[in-house]
Amino acid sequence: MRPTLVALKENIPHGKYAIKRFKIGQQTAKREHWGSILEEGPLASQCRKLYNNFTPSLAVNQIARIAQNARIYSMQIPPFTKSQPLSQENASEAVAQGCWLRSSKGQKEGGLRTFPVGRKIGFTNKNIWAQYNVDAPNWGYMYNQTILGIPTDRTGQSRKSFRMKRTLEPKIEPEIVFGIGQTPTASMNDEELLSCVSWVCHGFEIVESIFPDWKFNAVDTTIAGGLHRVLLLDNHNMRSVSDIKSHADFLTQLQNFEIDLFCNGKLVDQGKGSNVLGSPIKALKHLVELLNDQTLHPQIMPGEIITTGTLTKALPINDGDVWHTHFRGIELGGYRVQFELTDPTIHASQKYLDGRNEVLRYIQKANASV
After folding, report:
1. Which of 28, 83, 105, 158 to pair with 238, CA 20 to 30 A apart?
2. Which superkingdom is the protein from (predicted)?
């Protein structure tokens, strides 16, 4: 029988957080967010320690705040690089400030406090670089409110549709996800890296663009948190690394497996493990090496959830779509989820109006400078 999160409890450091998410999720399925990881892990405390001691420039603070408000209020804005010169170093500082704004100040989303619990690696699939005007992978934080367990049966069939806003042009990305058990280092080879992983599963990352028509450059996407919206996981679709007899064989499978992506019963794209920098484990290695050179940010820590990038094209989601996947060459189950797209709700609170007005002022200023 395929192991579930509950069955993997003893093998996942800080895995109790994920287990709470799925248990709570099944009890609160009427909410848009099906539950939350309620307790912080090492990543959240380390982010707080590092970012509390970081003082951004006024410009970095402003772009981080505007990016966050655009996401919260489902507003699209001109790319930041369209109106001002910005480097990846500026973008990295905006990531730190964005995380601090979102978590350390006690911001609540869905009525629950927000804190980072993992990271997404973006643009690991070189086949889509030209389409999005990027030339290298990047990363962004994932939060307790953005890693969600969709209630499913044991065949991976979702029992509820996932509801989300339509305004930011959401797209779907099938990915391989790792649960980190031990801290990986840049000097490790692939087999040593795999030994740092507690569990492996398949998930859907939903990405969205605060920039119209998905037009931006790499710096803009880093500032926007890697365009991360949510990571959808299936608690019946996890595999414990400790149960894998041959790590060498599994590494070969991670490189060579194939995946079919279906929308409403129609095959819309195909991918393979080697699409993400040669293999999902090599994508993880890239992130470890990248963070090794970025002293502003924490290294990967036990308890983190890491998603390694899209195996296929990122494809647009429409209201009512039912997406599912099928694997060949690896022992991972497919996943099925239906989407319900809604319009954003307009609020009359002062906080809501202040946030929207700041974004509107930026849009006006950015358009005037072109």
Report:
1. 28
2. Eukaryota
How many beta carbons lie within 10 A of that of residue 341, not counting itself? 17
Count of C-beta atoms within a 10 Å radius of residue 285: 20
Q: What distance separates the 2 farthest-apart alpha carbons in the chain?
A: 61
pLDDT in tens, 240-269: 999 999 999 999 999 999 999 999 999 999
Amino acid in position 44: A
Tokens of 196: 């740092």
Q: Which residue's entry shows tokens 């690696």?
A: 121
Amino acid at 327: F
Which residues touch 307 (CB under 8 Å, ≥6 apart)? 118, 119, 120, 121, 142, 175, 176, 177, 178, 203, 205, 231
**Helical segments of 206-334, H only:** 218-223, 247-256, 280-292
The residue extents of the domains of the chain are 9-37+115-345
- Of 162, 228, 240, nearest to 194 by C-alpha is 240
Which residue has 């287990």 as its token pair?
19
Q: Looking at domain 9-37+115-345, what is its CATH homologous superfamily? A: Fumarylacetoacetase-like, C-terminal domain (3.90.850.10)
Helix (H) or strand (E) holding 93: helix 88-99
- pTM value is 0.88
Residue 281 carries which side chain, given as an amino acid letter? I
